[in-house]
Structures are given as C-alpha cells and as structure tokens.
Amino acid sequence: MDTRAKEVYKIQDKFYPCSTSITMDFIGGKWKTVILFYLKDGCKRYNELRKEMPMVTERTLSLQLKQLEDDGVIRREVHTLKPPLKVEYSLTDFGKSLIPLLEMIAQWGRDVAKDKAEVVTMP
To answer: Closest Cα to residue 50, out of 79, 89, 81, 103?
Structure first.
C-alpha cells in the first residue's frame, strides 16, 4: 500500500486533484466554452451573445457570464455616458490564454460534425 501523501493543486481555497480539474473548473459546463468561443474575436454585448446562443436561457447565460467574470476569464464593462445603458463582455488576458484550447475544441467538434451531424436550419 502506498502511504505517500498525494500532492494536489490549491487555488485560493479550492483543491484540485489534477490539472484537468483546474481547466474544467474554469471552462466546464455546457455554455461557458461556447461563450468564450464567441468572445475570442472581440467584445460582444449581452444581446449579441443571446443571438449567437438561442438555446440558452437568459438565466443560465447570466449565471455563466457572472461565473466567468468572477473567475477573471472575462471582463464586464458598463458604459453609462449616454442612454441606453450598454454592457459589453470581453476576454481578459487570462481568458485570451484559452483561445488555442477553444480553437482545438471547435475543430474537434467540426470533425465530429462532418462524420455524425445533420445540418438543420433553425427558425
């Protein structure tokens, strides 16, 4: 029996058994990676993100954006100089470090889609 202590990663007050669990904590979930993929080319307003992802509920999108902001992956900027209020989301430098990973995930999805997907036009 191995009696050595197991090394784990600690970020702030959270413990992670491996580096993959760190990555998944930041980008895991059904919509976080999709949000990040749409932000990789520049900032977007909330409604622009909603149009890109019509299947996500407003509540879920808001929660995922808040979590990404809290984790320092995206930046939320509120412009209040003139009405209407304008809120934009963009990747932080930390978030931009995910772009190569996002592009690999997207390419893998395109490869799978070629093999297994049916293209459907949404109304």
So the answer is: 89
